[in-house]
Amino acid sequence: MTCPICSKPTHPDYRPFCSRRCADVDLGKWLHEAYRVPVTPADDEDGAPDPDEGDGA
To answer: Other CB atoms closer than 10 Å to residue 3's CB: what's the count?
Structure first.
């Protein structure tokens, strides 16, 4: 298995990374939202307004 950040062999203490540095780089990417989970918007089948959105009044 190789490190997903730098492609070096992994180290058992930091698996799946090779070092603490690469683990911290990965954490930084998550914290700065470089990684995102794709979301598909749900289709509104009946066309009714969302009750949680309100009318702003």
So the answer is: 21
36-56 pLDDT, tens digit per residue, is: 888 888 766 665 666 666 665
For residues 21 and 3, the answer to whether their CB atoms sit within 8 Å is no
With a CB cutoff of 8 Å and minimum separation 6, the contacts of 32 are: none
Task: Please state whether 45 falls in left (phi above 0), alpha (psi between -120 and 50) or beta.
Answer: alpha
pTM for this entry: 0.61
Contacts 24+ apart (CB under 8 A), 41-47: none
